[in-house]
Amino acid sequence: MTDSTEYMIEWQPPEGYDPSGVLRRLPSPISRDMREIYNYSLKPKGFYLIDRHIEPSVTGHALKLFVDEALSHTDMVTVLKL
Questions:
Q1: Around Cβ 51, how many Cβ atoms within 10 Å?
Q2: H runs (alpha helix) in 15-55
Q3: Which distant-in-sequence residues (6+ apart) come within 8 Å of 7 by Cβ?
Q4: Could you read off the pLDDT of 3-26 as tens digits, one per residue?
Q5: Is 65 exposed, middle or buried (0-12, 13-18, 19+ CB in 10 A)?
Q6: Is 56 helix (H, G, I), strand (E, B) or coil?
């Protein structure tokens, strides 16, 4: 089993926030050999991301998209390693 790292991208999503735009831009979370690269969810305090350490560049791209999305709605975002 591969170790994982969890992150919380904290920000205050606006009421009625629709994440469909950012979710459509995310890279595939499944590798060519059918392993989970990363997973995510939208929480009340922002985006949760878990990195499975399969393809760091793919997970890094997803993390950047989540941070950019949050910053498009607010001036301050906090990224926590859980």
A1: 22
A2: 20-25
A3: 48, 49, 50, 51, 63, 79, 80, 81, 82
A4: 999 999 999 999 999 999 999 999
A5: middle
A6: helix
